[in-house]
Amino acid sequence: MAKEGANQTSGASSIEKGLGVLERAWDAQWALRLICVVLFFDMAMMLHARRGLWQWSVEDKALLSNVGWIALTLVAFSFLAAIVTPALLLLLRQVSFIVLERLPAFLTVSDDRTNQRPLGYVPARALRDLALHEKDDFLLRMYEAHERDKKAGRQSRERAGELTAAALLAALADWLLAHWIPGSVGLIGAIIEALAGWASVATAAILLCAGVILKWTWFSADAPDLIYYPPLDRELRDKERKDGGML
After folding, report:
1. According to the model, what pLDDT value does residue 241 have?
2. 92: domain range?
């Protein structure tokens, strides 16, 4: 009975872990990280065993007990993620900026933002100046919370762009490496083969979606730095009307 209860507990724990993984898979950034890790492991296998994860066999289980190979793979991935990939992404971003600047105006989408702010909203700097002038802790906390949220949003957007570009580079590297090593089949190559005639359509759709994400994360202008505080908004609008009437 005790053994059956232990088995049931173990089974329930495995189900919970599986559901947890599925739930996290909906997190785009976590999913992109997983793609990069799996593709890197696939490339490491192709370099070491001359075959990828798609060609996994019973004999390949010995790799998991090879501490030296696992340690080397982890160090290589950490070095790549911490140094090489950020440098490549920075170079890619700078090249993209240069290319976009050289494109004709009709091929680029201009981001024309109106100078008129919505009702009830004020420039963040104006709220900060008021908080410091009035020595109002509530307004100061509101401004600081706004700055934290703005910084977190910018970092999340930057991270989404970096992970999207990193996943594309990892997929390209996996595909090229499989062609370079005779007899090996990478995960990207296996997916393309499975899609058959639909491979070009799927590739185009993925590149289009990735391009939209990169456009939003890397090349979109920041939103106006505004905070919702109607009392100051009314005061600023009254001042603007008076200044307009004096001209």
Report:
1. 83
2. 33-107+116-246
